[in-house]
Amino acid sequence: MDQIHTLKTIKNPKISKLTKQTHEVEIPPLCPKSNNPIKGSTLTVSYIPEDELLELYSLNEYVASFIGSNEVRDLELFAQVVARDCRAVLGVKVSVTGKFILNIGQTLICECEN
To answer: With DSSP H G I counted as helix, E B as strand and the rest as coil, what are the percentages for the chain, rounded to 5?
Structure first.
């Protein structure tokens, strides 16, 4: 069974109205066989926060925990799982865009909401 790191949140200080939060994470090679995606691949997570914000280090650890996981056999599934998990911890609608640069001369862009 794959061990996926748990996402953590921090309290939104609400000093002013935060209208949008966007995290852009560089994606490491997730598939040990193909070494895809390659350097330059990113995952962008956007949401309008209420009480919670994604904790930065937790998000990096969460993404890294997918290395070799069954969820990365299909990068489209990976993007959808991230959107689902982020929504679950934040309790708000989340948009995820995965820009996956592949070593076969293609770039796959997945956009999903949850």
So the answer is: 25, 30, 45
